[in-house]
Amino acid sequence: MSTEATATKDKLVQDFRIVVADAEELLKATASQAGDKVTAARERIQDSLHQAKVKLAEAEDVVVLKTKQAARVTDEYVHENPWRAVGIAAGVGLIVGLLIGRR
Question: What's this model's pTM, rounded to 2 decimal places?
Fold first, then answer.
């Protein structure tokens, strides 16, 4: 999994948490509202929020698992091919240095 994909998933999870928190705040603010339709809507929203929280926790677990797997594979590769890893790191460093030097 690429760093960009992981960052995108982390941002999505963070944005989703904000939406859930805003929805919970909205539910609290409308708690004093009466009526059958409002009560039914609040119950549906609460159920949806609960399901969203469960799915969010599952998504976080998957992201953490994938990140750990990528780190483990990278660590194994570096241990099996130390000079190749050093060469790759030096090449990336050179490219980054050249790009920064142009600015």
Answer: 0.49
